[in-house]
């Protein structure tokens, strides 16, 4: 077994957390998997895996080496298919992660069309507002709402969603409707935080061309879009949310916009993927499809807004 094959065995054992299941997925015998891991550990000079009778886990060195192994295997795949980049039919497992609001409002209602276009793509869809490490978690691309932190990933802007400051009718009935930024001092907000350092997102407004940031007094802090919407619906406070996930609630009057005369700006919707000289056909197909459906989504929203007016 050559070195690349040993790396494939190693990543499979990590994915399945089992020598037996890795052997089954690779159509190898259990002893051959064990031999491959032993030889790989000798070649790299460190122990990569902890083995017990019940489970297999990464050592500290193994966690570090896993990223390198995945990068190497990805580079090998790219080199193997280099000349087929634009003619090969998209195929294989495609791992995509995205925010709850994007999945529920845009992607999932249309995902059957992508699957019909590319029947050989096996789509694994992760839905979460939490940040993911694309390399460490073997994710091909992610879709996110909001300003992006500095990153080595390639990013493409696919949409801008208006930001809405809103609350439930019950909250406004009890606490009153704010008419100015100064009025916000008498209100509490459902405050969004994100990232491993739990950075709190300040509310943004633009007045006479000048940007103003407001740090709301929190009713509670939360890091999930759908949970933030639910808290607003329960009347726990004001919320400032991208409209991409709350059109139905606004249309039904379950959430009421406030401070609409003030410009709260927009939030970018971006697709991110690792920098590569050669983008796999399955990733390119999803990227192009995503751009096209967000253009369609924007047109649908514009038509709906015109009807409302």
TrEMBL record:
What keywords appear on the UniProt entry? DNA-binding, Transcription, Transcription regulation
Q: What InterPro entries is this protein classified in?
A: LysR-type_TF_proteobact-type, LysR_HTH_N, LysR_subst-bd, WH-like_DNA-bd_sf, WH_DNA-bd_sf
Transmembrane regions: none
Q: Does the keyword Repeat apply?
A: no
Keyword Transmembrane helix appears in the UniProt entry: no
For this protein, what is any one GO molecular function term?
Answer: DNA-binding transcription factor activity
Its BP terms in the Gene Ontology are: DNA-templated transcription
Q: Which residues form the HTH lysR-type domain?
A: 1-59
Q: Which Pfam families match?
A: HTH_1 (PF00126), LysR_substrate (PF03466)
Q: State the similarity comment.
A: Belongs to the LysR transcriptional regulatory family.
Identify this protein by name: LysR family transcriptional regulator
Q: Which organism is it from?
A: Pseudomonas fluorescens
């Amino acid at each position: 077994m050559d070195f690349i094959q040993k790396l494939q065995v190693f990543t499979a054992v990590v994915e399945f957390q089992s020598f037996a299941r890795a052997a089954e997925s690779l159509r190898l015998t259990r002893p051959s998997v064990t031999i491959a891991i032993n030889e790989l550990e000798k070649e790299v000079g460190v122990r990569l895996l902890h083995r017990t009778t019940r489970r297999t886990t990464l050592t500290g060195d193994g966690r570090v080496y896993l990223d390198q192994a995945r990068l190497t295997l990805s580079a090998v795949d790219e080199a193997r298919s280099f000349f087929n980049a634009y003619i090969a039919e998209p195929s294989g497992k495609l791992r995509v992660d995205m925010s709850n609001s994007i999945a529920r409002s845009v992607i999932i209602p249309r995902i059957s069309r992508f699957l019909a276009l590319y029947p050989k793509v096996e789509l694994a869809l992760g839905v979460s507002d939490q940040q993911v490490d694309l390399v460490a978690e073997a994710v091909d691309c992610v879709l996110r709402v909001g300003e992006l932190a500095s990153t080595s990933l390639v990013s493409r802007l696919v949409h801008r969603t208006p930001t809405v400051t809103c609350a439930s009718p019950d909250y406004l009935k009890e606490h009153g409707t704010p008419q100015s930024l100064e009025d916000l001092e008498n209100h509490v907000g459902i405050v969004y935080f994100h990232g491993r350092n739990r950075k709190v997102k300040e509310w943004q407004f633009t007045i006479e061309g000048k940007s103003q940031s407001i740090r709301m007094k929190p009713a509670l802090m939360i890091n999930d879009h759908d949970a933030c919407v639910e808290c607003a619906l329960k009347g726990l406070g004001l919320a400032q949310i991208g409209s991409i996930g709350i059109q139905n609630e606004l249309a039904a009057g379950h959430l009421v916009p406030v401070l609409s005369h003030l410009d709260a700006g927009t939030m970018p919707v971006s697709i991110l993927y690792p920098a590569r000289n050669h983008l796999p056909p399955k990733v390119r197909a999803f990227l192009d499809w995503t751009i096209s459906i967000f253009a369609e989504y924007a047109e649908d929203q514009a038509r709906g807004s015109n009807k409302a007016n």
